[in-house]
Amino acid sequence: MAAICLIILLSVLALNVTATKEFATPTTCDACRSADMVWCYHDDMCYPHGSGTDRLPFACPGTDLCASNENCACTSCDDKSCQMKIPNAASCDDGSACDVAGQYCPPSATGATAPNGDCCTDGKWIVGVCGAPAPKPVEQVHLALGLNAGEMNVAYVTYDLDHGNSVSFWQKGGHSTTAVVQSDHRNLDNSGKRITRMATMANLTRGVMYEYQVSGLNQTFHFTFRRARATNDPDRHIIFGDMGSSHAFSLCSNCTATSTTCDVNTCAKSKPNTGLISEIETADMFLHVGDFAYNFDSDGGAVGDQFMRNIEQVAAYIPYMVSHGNHEDTPNNLAHFVERFRNMPTNSIPSNFVTLAGVGKNNLYYSWDAGLVHYIALSTELWFGVTDLKTDRKTQLAWLEQDLIKANANRQNVPWVIAHGHRDIYCTTGDDNDCDTPGDAGTVRKDLEPLFFKYGLDLWINGHEHSYERTFPLYNGSSDRSNVNPKATIYIVTGAAGSQEMHEGFDKDPPSWSAFRSNTFGYSRALVHNHTHLQWQQVQTDPTLFPDSDYGRIIDDVMIVQNKHGPFNISEAPKGTAWPRGDSTANRTHDHFAPLLGLEDDGTNKSTCTLIREFKNKYGEAAYAKKEDDLLKYINDNVGGHTVWEDVRDSGSSTGSWFKWKGGHA
Questions:
Q1: pLDDT in the model for residue 503
Q2: pLDDT single digits (tens) 292-330
Q3: If you ran DSSP here, which 8-state letter would residue 267 be given?
Q4: Which of 46, 63, 240, 632 could bond to 523 as cystine, CB 3.0-4.6 Å?
Q5: Quick one: DSSP state of residue 16?
Q6: Which residues of 611-649 are buried (b: 16+ CB within 10 A; e: fewer)?
Q7: Which CATH class is domain 229-572?
Q8: Among the listed residues 482, 556, 487, 489, the one whose alpha carbon sits nearest the alpha carbon of residue 526
Q9: Three-state SS string across 613-666, please?
């Protein structure tokens, strides 16, 4: 154990801080404190105060590292900020390692369970896995629409090559057929050890219910292949982004912030009429627009495995389509994304993508038809450094234009064209780099908006912001008020399904092109009625302030009517403002931050943006940062103890900030 302290001391020396041992023999914490020094419980030695040693995660209570046991503000061994009080511990000197939620546990407590259900394992609090059952031989089953007509792909995980070697499927009450499992099973062992496999169920008939079973798993699943709808029954596409293993509030109302487990026992068997679970019987497709699990590779891949177990209760019955998010950018997480979702109907060029797991399918961008909609999945991460040296932003743009040309040629049959990715093209959260021009949104917009306009893209959908926002028809910053025969693309942000990164308050009035926005948790529905009418809804699933009766409430509902699908005309492009500039009409923003922050209206129905502005002007940024600290404490006390801000700035405020998330991802 002394080696651990030595490693940290070497880091201190690298920072030109002197850290010579004062005592040559082991001593006590009290003796160190009496000598005005810092005690390391690994070797019972004392070390001088300094910019390095004061940040060690094992100082005595009462030193300037931990002024009070009720307000621990420790730092982990790798110098990442730790802002949570240690669960079920006396002080910050009990820990030797820090997990992503900023919690410590002493190695001597391995196997102990914290009050919030976490498990202390090898010096780390592991979220929600203490006493978890051993994995099944086959698990994490999920469907995707196939590349060719009459196909459904099923992917799953095994832990050896003796299971999952075949998939049998049959019409309900009919004879069984065996699907061929692809021989190129993938060893995804860059964080944890598992084998990803997939099979294609072919020659399926539209509107028929099929049952299927993966060998080695004593469980039968079912799906209806491309439901045949009645005349007045729309296709139902359920769309959302940024959903974690914990805080998955949109999955069902039983999901919590204190555990990563939100599986079939938590939801489908207990709360079948809430959240995404309630959509299973009527949905045609789920679409998750990036940022999964938080993160796939966390805790040796255990968090990613639990996320896939959680979604199995919907994804084994309804196609679960995806696009690539920034939380899947790191080498480990990118490998997890490419291999776990290898069942996507990839038609990209190049067709392969190389990760740490080897040569896999290129599912960073691809397209497919779902009823009357042609969907195009794009990777916005290719603008921000993700590449395998063959696939990059330019290859995606070249492929995209050809795909849009083909989609336009088929609009008589499939009239609606919708593209989706993870990062924003237009958004209004705070004034951080996500929504800025020429920030991240401006970078992506520069390449994509001209193509969208040229080929008449109906909708762009993304996540990334942990909020919801819908624009009016919008081109080059100008907008039209009407959603009847839009003259430009409509942009939608739906990244509020629920994760450990709390959404921000809106501290600026909505721009003229913003039709509606909300910073409550929720998911979206696209109800495709026919060739000309598409209804868009936002469903609220927020447990932070609202009564249980508000879970599942529709907070945005709009009909988009397009009688002239096809390329937009530059002479008819929006040139004005849908709302007057500077308009702060309160009902354009559904924002519950005012009561959460304790900002009181004077009875004139001011928007939250106005209240935040007035508070900052009167009391200053530091006072507002304190308000946000109090809000985060409230969330952690009442919702769960692993919540952090989506964005954090040096002053402590989460609004108007640049990003500084643990791990380096937005």
A1: 74
A2: 999 999 888 889 999 999 999 999 999 999 999 999 999
A3: T
A4: 240
A5: T
A6: bbbebbeeeeeeebbebbeebbebbbeebbbbbbbbbbb
A7: alpha beta
A8: 556
A9: HHHHHHHCHHHHHHHHHHHHHHHHHHCCCCCEECCCCCCCCCCCCCCCCCCCCC
Residue at 299: amino acid letter: D
The dihedral region occupied by 192, where left means phi > 0, alpha psi between -120 and 50, and beta the remainder, is left
Domain ranges of the chain: 1-100, 229-572
Residue 387: partners with Cβ closer than 8 Å, 6 or more residues away: none
DSSP annotation string for 17-72: -----S-SS---HHHHHHTT-EEETTTTEEE--STTGGGSTTPPTTSTT-S-TTS-
pTM for the complete prediction?
Answer: 0.78
**What gap in Å lies between CA 661 and CA 666, rounded to an integer?**
6
Closest C-alpha to 396, from 434, 353, 436: 353
Complete DSSP assignment for 503-529:
PPPP-SPPPTTEEEEE-S-EEEEEEE-
What confidence tens digit (pLDDT) does each residue in 357-366 have? Answer: 999 999 999 9
Locate tokens 């849908």: which residue?
578
CB distance 416 to 372 below 8 Å: yes
The number of beta carbons lying within 10 Å of the beta carbon of residue 175 is 6
